[in-house]
Amino acid sequence: MPRTKQFNEEDILNKAMELFWEKGFHATSIQDLVCHLGINRASLYDTFGGKEELFKRAFERYRNISGCALTDLFKAEDSVKKGFRMLFFRAIEVARTNPEHKGCFVVNTTTELLPGDDAIKKVLMENKTHVEQLFISRIKLGMETGEISMDKNPESIGMMLFALYSGLEVLTKVEEDTAKLHSMVEAGLSVLD
Q1: What's the rounded Cα separation, in Å, for the pair 190 and 102?
Q2: Which end of the chain is flanked by fewer CB atoms within 10 Å, N or C?
Q3: Could you report the per-residue pLDDT of 113-132, keeping only the tens digit for each?
Q4: Angle 81-85-88 (CA atoms, 0-180°, nearest 5)?
Q5: In terms of C-beta density within 10 A (0-12 exposed, 13-18 middle, 19 or more buried), how is residue 97 classed?
Q6: Which whole-number Å values give the CA distances from 59 to 14, 65, 99, 127, 173, in the listed order?
Q7: Are the beta carbons of 148 and 81 closer than 8 angstroms?
Q8: Residue 181 carries which DSSP code?
Q9: What angle, rounded to 10 degrees, do the helices at 30-37 and 41-48 form?
Q10: What is the mean pLDDT, run by run of 10 residues, along the chain of 193 residues?
Q11: pLDDT at residue 5, as a whole number
Q12: What is the pLDDT of residue 119?
């Protein structure tokens, strides 16, 4: 008779996401996962297939959660420019209030696993394209409403803002002067003026 799982897969994915986010893929051992998740090795392998598969599922969960939060943030703000400013300033604030200074799981994964992991590169490229397209759609909305000049190139600006956002997620780990980070954001967002 098959054994019934004594754990909730969603809870385990959330815990795995937090651990991988904090430590990274390579620094997280199977024993770390067993201890942190509170499940035995057999259950980990039977349910998730192993460390790499669990990482991919936890990473996908993070992407889904952060993608929804990003969409919701933009929807909550009528002004396109204010929405971008809120996004960037919130990233700075989250970095300042996070005691582990974990940064962004996507950016951390990019710097840890690339080059070298073609499967994760594909996922990261999909994420990049998704976020850039969201940025581009917001810029186009700003152009339609007259908030942003029609002579702007939304694709180029969307790519640049994605690069700025990714860079900001790295810089918040080392730069302690919030005013400098805010100034950098304002300079980057001036492209929308």
Answers
A1: 28
A2: N
A3: 888 888 888 989 999 999 99
A4: 140
A5: exposed
A6: 10, 10, 21, 11, 20
A7: yes
A8: H
A9: 100
A10: 67 94 94 94 92 93 93 94 97 89 88 87 92 97 97 98 96 93 97 96
A11: 59
A12: 86
DSSP label at 99?
A: T
Please give the pLDDT value at position 1.
Answer: 44
Distance CA 65, CA 59 (A): 10
* Cα–Cα distance, 159 to 96 (Å, whole number): 25
Which pair of structure tokens corresponds to residue 32?
Answer: 């770390």
How far apart are the C-alpha atoms of 105 and 21, rounded to whole Å? 5
Residue with tokens 């937090």: 18
Using CA atoms, how far apart are residues 88 and 73, in angstroms rounded to an integer?
11
Tokens 């067993």, located at residue = 34
User: pTM value?
Assistant: 0.87
Q: Is the peptide bond before 2 cis (omega within 30 degrees of 0)?
A: no
**Is the Cα torsion angle 74, 76, 81, 85 positive or negative in sign?**
negative
- Amino acid 56 reads K
d(CA 25, CA 62): 14
CB 100 within 8 A of CB 24: no
Sign of CA dihedral 188, 189, 191, 193: negative
**Residue 6, exposed/middle/buried by CB under 10 A (0-12, 13-18, 19+)?**
exposed
Residue 34: CB atoms within 10 Å: 15
